[in-house]
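Worked example 3 (structure in, sequence out).
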């Protein structure tokens, strides 16, 4: 059945000449998430079959690379057999770093030889792509310093604390910076895989892969899935108190001057300290708290959009809609229809 589908879909791909074989090394680290290993293997193998079915040569040489021949994952529930050990791969074109589970610092320490191997491959010209929280292992190499990166929105604060030299792009599904790629949270790595397929083949092949795997191609934001909890993992007591005040008085009109006076900090100093501690300006933080409350209401209540708007302290419908879309990527109506079937 699968081969029939490949043959059926292949006729939509124009015949063109492609580059020489690309060697793709999918790493199998300790503490890896199994799906983040098997999914890219499946994607690039399937694309090879698409190409062959259309009369073209396969493009990707896909290999699993590890520190040992067999890697135990999920506390021994699964075992992954690697085709090559690190020292058996002299050079590769693309390194894929899968997501890690558990404690990230521990995972980085366990995979120290892999970290060094990535650095060596990059020095030889390899491109590197991290999937979801695989960004933690990639960032530990230092190769992302000064570059843009994305990861799962839930771990953004932890990532920034561990790797302050990396420019984390909030909400991004895909980032690319000088041959270094990364994806957002969880299954958004499928979008990065499609992006790489298009980069190495063509748009038609990427569309075919998107249809075969039922992936929404060109999705560029994980904002609709993000839950804002504030960034309180810092040592500035006055700013933390200001955050808590905002979160309990978000229906009221709150100004920067009011907050600075309330916590006895000069306005300029307050704004600077707030941005440093939370990675948001004061206005952004207030907006995000209000929008998080609006999202919860749209998800669970039968209130209309205006009622939700008034509840979170807005009186201007256009301003509310614009701010909501800025932080979620959706309009209030679209968001309600997506997450609240009863209200929709």
């Amino acid at each position: 059945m699968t081969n029939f589908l490949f043959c059926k879909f292949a006729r939509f791909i124009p015949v063109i000449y492609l580059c020489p074989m690309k060697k793709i090394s999918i790493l199998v680290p300790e503490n890896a998430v199994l799906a983040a290993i098997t999914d890219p293997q499946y994607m690039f193998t399937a694309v090879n079959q698409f190409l062959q079915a259309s009369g073209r040569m396969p493009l990707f040489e896909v290999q699993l690379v590890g520190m040992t021949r067999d890697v135990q994952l999920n506390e021994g529930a699964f075992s992954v057999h690697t085709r090559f050990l690190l020292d058996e791969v002299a050079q590769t074109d693309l390194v894929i770093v899968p997501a890690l589970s558990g404690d990230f610092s521990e995972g980085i320490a366990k995979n120290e030889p892999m970290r060094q191997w990535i650095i060596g491959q990059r020095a030889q010209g390899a491109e590197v792509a991290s999937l979801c929280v695989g960004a933690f292992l990639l960032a530990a190499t230092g190769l992302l310093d000064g570059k843009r990166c994305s990861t799962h929105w839930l771990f953004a604060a932890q990532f920034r604390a561990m790797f302050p030299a990396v420019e984390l792009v909030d909400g991004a599904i895909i980032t690319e910076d000088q041959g270094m790629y990364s994806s957002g949270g969880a299954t958004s790595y499928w979008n990065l895989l499609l992006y790489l397929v298009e980069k190495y083949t063509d748009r038609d092949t990427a569309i075919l892969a998107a249809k075969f795997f039922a992936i929404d191609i060109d999705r560029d934001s994980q904002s609709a899935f993000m839950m804002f909890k504030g960034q309180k993992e810092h040592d500035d007591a006055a700013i933390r108190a200001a955050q808590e005040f905002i979160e309990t008085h978000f229906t009221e009109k709150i100004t920067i001057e009011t907050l600075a006076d309330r916590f006895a900090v000069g306005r300029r100093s307050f704004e600077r300290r707030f941005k440093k501690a939370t990675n948001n300006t004061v206005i952004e933080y207030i907006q995000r708290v209000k929008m998080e409350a609006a999202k919860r209401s749209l998800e669970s209540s039968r209130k209309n959009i205006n009622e939700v708007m008034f509840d979170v302290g807005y009186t201007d419908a256009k301003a509310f809609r614009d701010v909501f879309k800025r932080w979620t990527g959706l309009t209030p109506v679209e968001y309600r229809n997506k997450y609240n079937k009863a209200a929709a």
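Notes: The radius of gyration is 23 Å. The first strand starts at residue 22 and ends at 27.
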